[in-house]
Amino acid sequence: MNKQTLLETRQRISAYVHNTPICTSHLLDDISGGKLFFKCENFQKMGAFKMRGATNAIMQLTKAQQERGVVTHSSGNFAQALSLAAKNLGVTAYIVMPKNAPKVKRDAVLGYGGIITDCESNIKAREEAAAQIVAEKGATFIHPSNDLNVILGNATAAMELLEVHPDLNCIISPVGGGGLIAGTALAAHYFGTQCKTIGGEPMVTDDAFRSLQTGQIETNITTNTIADGLRTQLGDINFPILQQHVDHIIRVEEEEIVKAMRLLWERLKIVVEPSSAVAFAAVLKNKAYFKGKKVGIILSGGNVDLDTLRFS
């Protein structure tokens, strides 16, 4: 892993992803005490950063592998990303989705041509269903977050942010499966100037926070968070990157996520999903730490199920 690898990744996928805008708000700066730069991956193709990693992972497969298709398991955003990336590259995408996945994300997968297999809402059921498709179809499994090519693709969001604002003191990313924060940390390490990577994580699914404390991958007893994209856990590929390059993780309560999301909708005038708001919630919870700092915030996506959305 080196700087050149990341530069090659960015060049490889550039024709298939958006260089998303960076938003600012004087009011949110005043509220937080810092100078905030929001990298708006809610404006990415299919509405989330995961388009980056999915595209890079498929493009790194051999022609024979691409012809047999790809498979993943995802509650929504990576399912959409892999479906659209596969469609753009002429590849079949098989998607294992939990039955309780948001309808807006399920409909999007179908719209992008993904072939859905339903499963129960737990990691074991997801993995078993995906393994069966691999056995039957010969498709290549691409993990939503614990895959180096996915992580490298994800890193390009922070690379773009640092290209415009190379003097950021830190970049904050939401933490779920670890693929985004791992990529963000690599970008900050190779392209930032003493730029720290910080994670935001729901208190009720704080496996990454605990994993960095214990030095081993921890699991969650509950996944009962409004941030549905962060209900997964770290893997053996991304965890070492977090250990080496992530400064710390800030945990936030559910009501803090909702408050942060409401502020983003009201003040930036953009649609972000709850998982995106977790990073901003971490800033609001630790104003003293971020006061006077230049802070990059990855707004990871904007795929909201309006039927279940709540602001109070």
From TrEMBL:
SUPFAM superfamilies for this protein: Tryptophan synthase beta subunit-like PLP-dependent enzymes (SSF53686)
Coiled coil: none
Cofactor field: pyridoxal 5'-phosphate
InterPro entries registered for this protein in UniProt: TrpB-like_PALP, TrpB-like_PALP_sf
Keyword DNA-binding: no
Domain Tryptophan synthase beta chain-like PALP: 14-301
Keywords, alphabetical: Pyridoxal phosphate
Protein name according to UniProt: Pyridoxal-phosphate dependent enzyme
Organism this protein belongs to: Gelidibacter pelagius
